Amino acid sequence: MQHFRIDGPCRLNGDIEVSGSKNASLPIMAAAILAPGKSILKKVPNLVDISLCGDLLEELGCKVTRGPLNEMIIDASVIDNPVGAYETVSKLRASICILGPLLARCGKVRVSLPGGCAIGFRPIDLHVRGLRALGADISMEYGDVVAEAPNGLVGTEIFLGGSFGSSVLGTANVLMAATLAKGTTVIESAACEPEIVDLANFLNKMGAKISGIGSPCLTIEGVKELHPVGHEVIPDRIEAGTFMAAAAITRGELHINNCNLSHMLAVVDKLRQIGVTVEPVENGCVVSHEGPIRAVNITTQPHPGFPTDLQAQFMALLCLADGNSIIVEKVFPNRFMHVAELSRMSANVTKEGSIVIVSGQGKLVAAPVMASDLRASATLVLAGMVAEGTTIVQRIYHIDRGYEKLEVKLNAVGANIIRERA
Ligand code: EPZ
Q1: Which residue range(s) make up the domain with 336?
Q2: 268-308 pLDDT, tens per residue?
Q3: What is the chain's alpha carbon radius of gyration, rounded to the nearest angstrom?
Q4: Count of domains for the chain
Q5: What is the CA(58)–ligand 1 centre distance, in A?
Q6: Within-domain flag for 286
Q7: Domain with 127 in it: what CATH number?
Q8: What is the best residue among 50, 119, 122, 242 to mutate for testing ligand 1's pocket, by most ligand atoms within 8 Å of CB?
Q9: Distance CA 341, CA 345 (A)
Q10: Nearest CA to ligand 1 atom 43
């Protein structure tokens, strides 16, 4: 198993490139199922999760090939096996987003229930509610979700809000299914994440008729068929936010390229409250910081609120703040696997249910630590870069799921990270 050996402290300085968005690519890859023929996606990052999604599409009957410059060609001419097997789905929770497009294209689908994961229970009741509302018969069989709509789907009004607000992949599933339903579908309390906007734009290019894109109310006029298209996925705002936190925590200056600040208003606002300089430039921004890190409070929420996927990274930053910060996790209340690991690095963090009090004390100390999920792992890399000494971050396969060449990008701007095999 591989680990990162990180020598700190370091100060990051220079140009860093953000890859295409993992969380836009995954539902868009699933959406390619809706149109027989070849869709060509650009700036799809080279990640484990993306490869797993490609494997899944091939199990369905698609042909998935990679071209130069992170291009991906998905030939969905033939879908002869509408089944998402446990072996693949258990490794990639996002596999659930083949449910909607397969139902719309084939009228039947069997997808293994995604297991839980380190950030908590991942129910799919909203996905099921929405697809049932469109007329699907859905049952559970031996750990699989079995969905059928032999006479096709019929548009209707659907309220898709759950106890934690909107659902990103729940919205994706229902949105994709609705594009080929008979009549009009209105999705209330739809997710507004930029990744859903990108998916909706991709679907409209394919011939779908979606309006209200980016709002909590999506209206979809069903069409008879969709056609394959070309599309460039949006930048990964979570990778960009991770780099912003890295510039701040190391008191450095990073020119972050291929980042869309309009996708990250809550993140930029929070950085500025902390005292970090964020200067928009063409195709990105320059993030720099010197002097004290101001303590702030963060509450994670669905977009446009502060993203849960950056909660852990900002916790590491606030460990160095000049006072106490309160972090409230309202999307995944148990998403705190990183708290124990940061404590091993002498962070002064106290967890009370879905709230963590970070008592800034201005110092993180190197230690061997264990990655547990994608974003918590990135947090440990940030902490290791600023801690005095050598930090070993184990189980970095979590990082490879969602960050493209993370150590290569960070070493190019001044980090000292070596990937080693234990
Ligand atoms: C997406 O997951 C992202 N993954 C997650 O990013 C991200 O953390 C999450 O959205 C929230 O922004 C991808 O896009 C591949 P949700 P998703 O459905 O869609 C509850 C990363 O690090 N809920 O929006 O699975 C759920 O338990 C990953 O890149 C229900 O109650 O998340 C949670 O509390 C981690 N019923 C809340 O809603 C449902 O049917 C938000 O979940 C579905 C969800």
Answers
A1: 2-17+235-421
A2: 999 999 999 999 999 999 999 998 999 999 999 999 999 99
A3: 21
A4: 2
A5: 25
A6: yes
A7: 3.65.10.10
A8: 122
A9: 7
A10: 124
